[in-house]
Amino acid sequence: MSARPTIAVLNGPNLDLLGTRDPRLYGTATLADIEKSCRRTADDLGFDIDFRQTNHEGVLIDSIHDLRESAAGFVVNAAAYTHTSVALHDALAIVAAPIVEVHLTNIHAREEFRHRSFVAPVAKAVIAGCGPDGYAFAIRHLAALALDTEQKDRSR
Ligand code: DQA
């Protein structure tokens, strides 16, 4: 079995309720639908996915610690913790692999308290407002970055 690089996809609180949670805002795709599409996108690019969701800040941070040395990249939709969690910022700051922050909605077009992100300063890129497609865009970008790093390493 060849070990394929893994992209971690971490989801924060209330995203487990996608599909029924305010569909006019968040759409009708469930988190299981998003996971399926992430796996399909990653598989086409030769990557595995470690897909997680939690409603607990400490569990989210434990996942980052868990994956910080093994994941080739991180897709992070920390949901409401994006706007509140210094602990999340600090955990992500320790990660060497690139991070893409994703939001289903355009957080900058919503309430002012959503305009601030503790993830953005430690992210390589931020994707907001593309719905579930944002996850696929993030995976494509991380895969391109990983391949670029691999090529640079090989030419050294
Ligand atoms: C969200 C935006 C956050 O402001 C909100 O708390 C969420 C979902 C998004 O994906 O649009 O729960 O991260």
From TrEMBL:
One of its GO terms (biological process) is chorismate biosynthetic process. NCBIfam families: aroQ, PRK05395.1-2, PRK05395.1-3, PRK05395.1-4. Pfam families: DHquinase_II (PF01220). Belongs to the type-II 3-dehydroquinase family. It catalyses: 3-dehydroquinate = 3-dehydroshikimate + H2O. CDD domains: DHQase_II. HAMAP family: AroQ. Homododecamer. One of its GO terms (molecular function) is 3-dehydroquinate dehydratase activity. Its EC number is 4.2.1.10. This is 3-dehydroquinate dehydratase. It is an enzyme of class 4 (lyase). The record marks R21 as: Transition state stabilizer. Signal peptide: none annotated. Substrate binds at N77, H83, D90, L104, T105, R114. The active site is at Y26 (proton acceptor), H103 (proton donor).
